Amino acid sequence: MFVTVPEEPRTPYLRADLSRVHRNLQRAADLAGAAGVSLRPHAKTHKSREVAELQLSAGAVGLTVATIGEAEAFAAYGCTDLFIAYPLWLEEHAARRLVDLSETTRLAIGVDSVAGAANAGRHLGGHDIEVLVEVDSGQHRSGTEPHDAGAVAEAAAHAGLPVRGVFTFPGHGYAADPATVAREESEALSGAVASLAAAGIEARVVSGGSTPTLAHTDLGVVSELRPGVYVFNDAQQWELGVASPDDIALTCVATVVSHAGGRLVLDAGSKALGADRAPYATGWGRLPRAPFARIVQLAEHHAVVDFADAPLPPLGSLVEIAPNHVCAAVNLHDVIWSEDAAGPQPWSITARGRNG
Questions:
Q1: CA–CA distance from 64 to each of 57, 86, 238, 263, 311 (Å)?
Q2: Could you report the per-residue pLDDT of 132-163, keeping only the tens digit for each?
Q3: CA–CA distance, 80 with 76 (Å, rounded to integer)
Q4: 3-class DSSP state for residue 275?
């Protein structure tokens, strides 16, 4: 589907600060490079081929994606190394899409059960699509127990699927101490590697990492890092202490439309910012240039901001909002406006809505 791009951005719109994007990318690339591990960023955050190109140019070995649709979108623009970090349960149509992808792209998928591995092998065996066994490191969403990873890998190998290694997502780093979560990640991955070895299978890739836990990741255990939000950061990372306002590279630009009730009313609501609000969040988003302010009410097309005792920006002026969850906000827009000294340029949100 083609998107008509306006000649200039109109509020509410997403603005990317290109210099901050480059700085965020370089910081992660330097971390991975110094440790001698690979960087495979999660593209579900930005869904943009332009951002993907920047990540690959900065040294990423390939991309992580969440769905077959996202993989198809990035493969269509020339990405040749993709990992679908999801325990796929395949049927004939999905398997056919993966086989088609594998003709032009080095491709791997996740599995987290003996049944899932066997099913994937029935559909994909002989097509050189690799698998990584997902293990649960404490988030309790998906993933097998570390000591069962060998059995899952063995089932995949017996079904004709090459086993690349193991992976986990320490997603509970959004709700617990990141250093503690990183230790749990390390223990889970080490246990999974040992389980594979006991089954006679080498874990050639040990993949982990997330933006909140990245600074604490055990780089002696992992061989691949998969952060996603780091490229832009967001209000959640700010409130977790992972990023400062100066690290937030993507904001939603909104217009002040009212001063009703002595507060700021902006033309960006949940349909521009997303509706996510973690239990620890102090509002429905943050204003990097006014850190004292809080978005206290969010409707579909309105954000109401308590501006404390500070003077309100005038009606018609522009305000930048850091969404709580940047991945969800990006998926609500057609375009990201990248901005540097040369002015705004549109970036496509290539994989928007590719949820299956």
A1: 15, 10, 24, 41, 44
A2: 999 999 999 999 999 999 999 999 999 999 99
A3: 9
A4: coil
